[in-house]
Specification:
The chain is built from ten helices and no strands. The radius of gyration is 19 Å and the shape is elongated. The protein has one domain. Helices cover 82% and strands 0% of the residues. It is an all-alpha fold.
């Protein structure tokens, strides 16, 4: 466990010290949070609370996954492209320990950006609302358990793909994932314009899915090999 956290600490510090990446994360958090203001402002007063929680339910999760995707590029793709991963492969660490450490190292800053988004959405929504708006208990559970679990699952899957596939295949997959995530974020307001009300069951189902995904991806890492990774380094 200490070895995993050693790798995680290294990756987290690397992301935080890369000012361009952190500025991009803060920019997206601010930009998309501001986009939520018209949504809250234009709904009826009786529906403001539900709309506010809907925004937190969907938007914070999507942005967290999106930031995990952006940060994963540096930790997995760039290290492989530049051959840095070879240094880690020469250490006594197992592939699962390296993978787990990188997943934790990416999830931490991505989740922090998500929490910043929660704070910004809450502040902006309260500016345009006549009543006090705070996340419901179900949404709070979603933010503190489901969001980081899904970020970790998404990062873990990306990391597994980067380790298993060649550089050209990863570039194609990265473009497809980027387009899908960015499109989902851009249309947040349209998707959340409905009357969907977040329930405890919805949060519980998402949490179960995230845990199962993490377990499945962790199991699949046993099929990775150092030889496979080395042969796919350009």
């Amino acid at each position: 466990m200490n070895k995993i956290f050693t790798v995680a600490r290294k990756e987290t510090k690397g992301i935080v010290k890369t000012k361009s990446q952190m500025l991009v994360g803060i920019f997206f958090a601010l930009w998309f949070s501001v986009m939520t203001a018209p949504v809250v402002k234009t709904v009826e007063e009786s529906a403001v609370f539900d709309q506010f929680n809907n925004l937190l339910f969907y938007f914070v999760l999507m942005l967290g996954i999106f930031m995990g995707y952006l940060f994963s590029g540096r930790v997995f793709f760039n290290e492989k492209r530049e051959g840095i991963i070879e240094t880690l492969l020469c250490t006594p660490l197992s592939l699962r320990q390296i993978w787990s450490g990188k997943v934790v190292g990416v999830t931490i800053p991505a989740y922090l950006i998500s929490l910043l988004t929660v704070a910004l959405i809450t502040i902006i929504a309260n500016i345009f609302s006549t009543s006090m708006l705070l996340p419901s208990p179900a949404i709070a559970l979603h933010i503190f358990l489901v969001v980081p679990a899904f970020i970790a699952a998404a990062v873990g899957l990306l990391g597994f793909g980067h380790s298993l596939l060649g550089m050209r295949e990863n570039q194609i997959i990265n473009l497809l994932i980027f387009g899908a995530l960015f499109g989902a974020l851009a249309f947040t307001k349209n998707i959340m314009a409905g009357s969907f009300v977040v329930s405890w069951m919805a949060v519980g189902v998402l949490l179960l899915i995230a845990v199962l995904l993490l377990a499945l991806i962790s199991y699949l890492t046993r099929y990775l090999s150092k030889e496979r990774i080395v042969t796919t380094i350009p």
